[in-house]
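During data preparation, we tokenized the protein backbone, and the record follows.
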Amino acid sequence: MGERSTTAWEFTDDRGHLTSASEAPQRVVAYIQAGASLWDLGIRPAGIFGSFHDGDEPDHAKSGALPLDELAYLGAGAGLGLDDVLAVRPDLVVALTYGGGQVYGIEPDTAKHLEEHVPVAVIDVGQGRTLGGVRERFAELGRSLGTSEPAEARDELARSERQLGVAARGARGVRVLALSAAGADAVHLARPTKWPDLSALGGLGVGMVAPPESPGANWYTGTWRDVAELAPDIILSDARANAAPREQYAADPHWASVAERASVLPWNPETPASAHAHAALFDQVAGALRGR
């Protein structure tokens, strides 16, 4: 991790808030996905925290390359208190929003009081932004803190995008479905246009499968029969700790019929916003397409 600038610092976040300090922050606390994104940019967080989906331990599926055994984990959701954050003496907190400016993963009252003590920069990772747009916002934050993503990582991403495009053209008709298991009787099916990473896959030619229309903004909640009827060839299965483990639904005959014919890949809906992490996603999907 290289040295960072110590000149006067400011950054306008995705709520339109100008966040400023007399010098570039050195001790950054971040939501785990943001922390993993910053790590890939060369910034070591002073601490990380989880969301209301998380528990007393960090979710390894979300953590990217973070050295979890070396970092302070401050808690998650209702278990994350103001004093827990301030105890590690941050001079910047990086949080996320999925739109509307609401800080994700922190109790609203805690978030309000937190900003009375330390600058908070909030990055929008929701459906209103492309995957490249999310990545660029983190790159902008990194540059403001005096660091930038290695050129090798950007080259890796460009190569992965090209190779995924080639694989997708050679696998026309292959159907890719992203889902998050909810248990033996329920499953959440992702709407591919509502997730920046899934939209990016579709934009590179991957045949993403859309679930039926319903009130759910990002997900359609259905049954394993719905999955079977969509007949996917490749499944991107939510690997986060809040998703139901496979043993809960392995005996379902509809799931069994799908798993018999489909390739099942782990999917992190909270992929770090870095060239390296996005290249890894594209490489994984390209490999599965070539295998069909």
